[in-house]
Amino acid sequence: MDQNLKRSIILEHYQNPKNKGLIEDPHYCKVNMNNESCIDEVHLMVLFDQDKIKDIRFDGEACAICTSSTSIMISTLIGKTKEEAKEIIQNFEDMIDEKTYNEELLEEANVFNDIYRQPNRKKCALLGWWAIKKALEEGLK
């Protein structure tokens, strides 16, 4: 993917993040995650409809990488089953860790395929994904 296209996708999701803003609804699973090494903090709400992810919302204070990665994650995972989401999350983590991954599963999240070049930004890209992973674990209890 062209570097300029990557930048424009990241910037678009940073300036106009998907589903930003929390709501009052007790049916949502709520998870808070923060990055100890910077200001990034993500508050995530996930609504499950049995085995599917029906909705994801987020808020918090975060850098451009964290915000755009969380927004892209939301676009990628809404409508997926819990098992599909876990597979996508694992592939995203593998990509960030420079392991073999399925590029097709990640859709727009592929814009972060070279974030490993900036090791201090890996946690920024992963924070929202760790939050949804935790919500999936809690939602399976």
Index terms:
5 helices, 45% helix, single chain, Sufe protein. Chain: A, globular, alpha+beta, 141 residues, 3-stranded antiparallel β-sheet
Summarize the structure in words.
The chain has 141 residues and is α+β, with helices and mostly antiparallel strands. It has a single domain (3-139), classed as Sufe protein. Chain: A. Helix content is 45%, strand content 18%. It has 5 helices and 3 strands; from the N terminus they run H-E-E-E-H-H-H-H. It has a 3-stranded antiparallel β-sheet, covered by helices on one side. Helix 1 (3-15) crosses helix 2 (64-77) and helix 2 runs parallel beside helix 5 (122-139). The protein is globular and about 40 Å long. The protein starts with a helix and ends with a helix. The relative contact order is 0.20. The model has no long low-confidence stretch (mean pLDDT 94).
